[in-house]
Amino acid sequence: MTPVPRRRLLLVHAHPDDETLTTGGTIARYAADPDTAVTLVTCTLGEEGEVIPPELALLGPGGSDQLGGYRIGELAAACAALGVADHRFLSRPGRWRDSGMALAGHGVRAATPEHLHERAFARPEAFDEQVDALAAVLEEVRPQVVVTYPADGGYGHPDHVRAHQITVAALQRVPARLYFTAVGRSTLDAGLAALAEVADLPFRRPDTDELPTVPDDAITARIDVRTHRAARIAALRAHATQVTVWPEADGDAIAFALSNLVAQPLPDVEEFMAADGPGHDVDDLFAGAGE
Question: What is the chain written as a DSSP string?
Answer without folding.
Answer: -PPPPSEEEEEEESSTTHHHHHHHHHHHHHHT-TTEEEEEEE----TTPPP-SGGGGGGSTTTT--HHHHHHHHHHHHHHHHT--EEEESSSTTSSB----EE-SSTT-EE--SS--TTBTT-GGGHHHHHHHHHHHHHHH--SEEEE--TTTTT--HHHHHHHHHHHHHHTTS--EEEEEE-BHHHHHHHHHHHHT-TT--SBPPPTT-S--B-GGG--EEEE-GGGHHHHHHHHHH-TTT-EEES-SSS--SEEE-TT-B-EE--SEEEEEETT-----BS-TTTT---
